[in-house]
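pinning this so it doesn't scroll away 📌
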Amino acid sequence: MEISIVDSSAVASATTALLSLGKASDFVKKNDNSVAVACEASKEILIRRVQFMIASSVGQPLLSTKSCDGTPVRAQHSANKALPTGKRVPTRGKMGKELLVANQFVRYNHPAEGWQTSCLLAEPVPLSEGKAASAILSAARRTWKSLRSLGAKGGVLEHYCWDRAGITALERLVREWHHTQPVPVSDEFGPEVLKLLELVVVTPCALHDSQNAFRWGLLSQCQDRQLMRDVYISVEALRNSADLLHSRIGSWIALTVDFREARGMDWVCRQRELWTALGMDADFVELLSAELELSFEGGTLWVKRGAQVTYTPDCFCWGAVVL
């Protein structure tokens, strides 16, 4: 993609900022504006990337997926108030604010190059007018762009994703907004046809649904604050080291797995009781205890010699173990 250079000094400043922030050992000085310059340059690059994609879509249908959510933060706040005597007193402290974080992804399927995807990012918008549906949509539209406004003149699918709180009102407002948007001029289709080629789809957020189900279903089991803190630290540690685990798990299995003869029904029955007590699914219990005779003892992961396991949709084990 070629970008026309309007101001060479601005381009040089943005390039310097991006290269500086890309260094692993660099740091940002207190009064350095390189972060702001790099953010603005990145947003402009993403917009031009999307415009280039739309211009290169060769008539293929375009998809835009937009989502947003409120995020509470505590930020520094200072005020200067006048007393009845006329004396002004400065105060400083923390104030809670609600920010709306919105994002947008655009993609299409190129006949020769496959799926092409890009995104549009913008800074969070303060919800200074509250969290009503109209206020949320007004704040989100400050950063969102419709495919028509970006130059799309073919079939477009405008997809929106919100949590279920107020989703009915948000869907009604966003459909009204699209209905009132100007229709671009097209040599191939008339205005009425272009209106029919724009589809607006609203779906609830699956992540919000899953999180709410998790919270409501396990709330009674999550009252121990120290236990929750330990779980959080453990999960965070695993997430931060996921790349290390993935890169080493193959060699760990090769060095750790060993095979032994079948241990008999008494051992299998004890293992069944153990896995069942841990809440495992019955099919999974049978797989671990009877088919694999899986156990970790003395630093070795033991598997029954001759065990054969194939993948099925209701099984958590992939591949096969045969020896």
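📌 and the second one:
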Amino acid sequence: MGTIPRRIADNSRTWVRLAVALVGLLMVSGCSRLEIAYAFAEDMLESRAETYLELSPEQEVRLEAQSVALVAWHRKVMLPKYAAFFSAQADVAEAGGWTRAEFKRAFAEFRDLIDETVEGASPFIASVLVDHTAPKNIVYLETRMAENNAERRAEEADETPEELREKWVERRVERIARFTGTLSERQVTIVRRHTKSGMGYVLRWRDNRLKRQDALLAFLRARPTQNDLAHFVHRILLHAHEIVDPDYGAVSEARWQLNERMYFEVLSSLSDAQRRELAATLRSYASDMVELAGA
């Protein structure tokens, strides 16, 4: 449904993508692609890690094993839960749509699924990162982060605020349309209005992203245990304000609430044909997920 973002909470393009990349597989552009995406998931995770971590041959073997284990865990444990959620929301769509209270509960339920996904993935991530607490490993990771940030700043410098806003609008419209079919002009206007209201949060998130990266490096320098590292990964991904920038907790919650209002307004405006398309798409995803979970 429209409440499902393509990537959970636009986290940094560094190591954190290991935890959220699998959730992104749910949002491929066609249901038939879900199985194909899972077939490449292990390679995707390994490639992302190798971009930022200096790996010995032994560590490459460990990374491969943990990637396989993470994919297997996500398929067996999380896919059935996402499937049940999608099926339940399809029922609501077929029954005429959500009341405000129903949608609020559904949105909160999906946020809980996100949290459970990241918490469950964190031990796999920690088992890889725990081998990279030596000074030379941290320097390598810090260098890769700096390079990535420099590239990002160069890209952002070329965008006007209006161009950035329209890029976000296009992405959101595309994501919703995957489930409902083509949006009307009125619906696109709804997305644009809410996106414009939230652009200040985007800039705040960019600043917080750098603070999260610094917090990771500092934590690794303290040579944490694997269990402590797993706990840290979960918190820095979804509850970063508990570690750095306490004021960002309110900002993050405001972003969630703005998204909730936007998606509810869009879904409330769906035509009968769009609701039927939404229900059919949700059931198709759910069926694919159930099939993959049992594979």
